[in-house]
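Translate sequence into structure tokens.
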Amino acid sequence: MRFKDPLFFLLAIPAILVCALYVRSWIGAEAALRYSSLAPVRRAGGGGPSKGRWLPALMRLAAGLLLIAALARPQSGIGEEKTTKYVVDVMISMDISGSMATMDFAPGNRLEAAKIEARRFIEGRRHDRIGLVVFAAQSITQAPLTGDHEAVLTLLSRLQMGILEDGTAIGLGLATAVNRLRDSEAKSKVIVLLTDGVNNAGEIDPITAARLAAKYGIRVYTIGVGKEGVSVWPVHDPRFGTRLLKVETQIDEKTLKEIASLTGGRYFRAQDERGLRDVFKEIDRLEKTEIKVETYTHYEEQYHWFLWPAFFVLIAEALWTRILTLRLP
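Result follows.
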């Protein structure tokens, strides 16, 4: 609560002074009539001066102070916030080709590690719209740009290899994400492209897709996933079951760097799950969401909380003075 016009409280000073002078006038005041002796009055049961004679003055003072408080316009406020968000629209384009099953990342393979870190990334960007594109030999949109992060996380958790023909269409995966972002009016538009291979499928060249992204003002952060050298890749044989083959990681870092350079983004290499986590943290740091919050307060007049008590005190003072108190002629 606040008082809109607190200067009215200055009126309390003369009110208190008047009351104090009134009470002081009763102290030591001489009687209106003089008697040679008060013994007959005492024998008749009379007492000394009534202590309640100051009460009307104090009640009037209380009523006056309450009226002054009402004049000062007491108000209660309800806070309101107006939030302006400069959000980032983010499309995650993730490779789900067969090579993402390579077992050089914990807890199982490259795809599972990528899903875990992408989940952390999405959960940390509460105010942004996020979408999900996956690619192998073809590319599809799993989730368009949305603020419903739970829906995106559900679709992310269900990702698995084999839902698309095997291959690595980096250019197509990038172009699909660009198509989802091109009409965005966000202040910042970003694609996070994650792959562990070399472009070997699709109708669109990665550099052509990168130039298209640059045309629409979209930054592309590229992530090369996989350890240097030889890793283990599980192969499912219908006759002999799962076999483990040794494969060498091949990432077209030159193309990924050029994609990032053309669009104003950056290229990162992640060789283990910790490195992948650091990459997503760095992207999160680079693409900050700006939120401006303005606070407004709506005030309501609350003078009745003081006006009604003042009214009741005046009524009580009138009852005390004119009815309850014995007045002599």
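Note: The mean pLDDT is 83.
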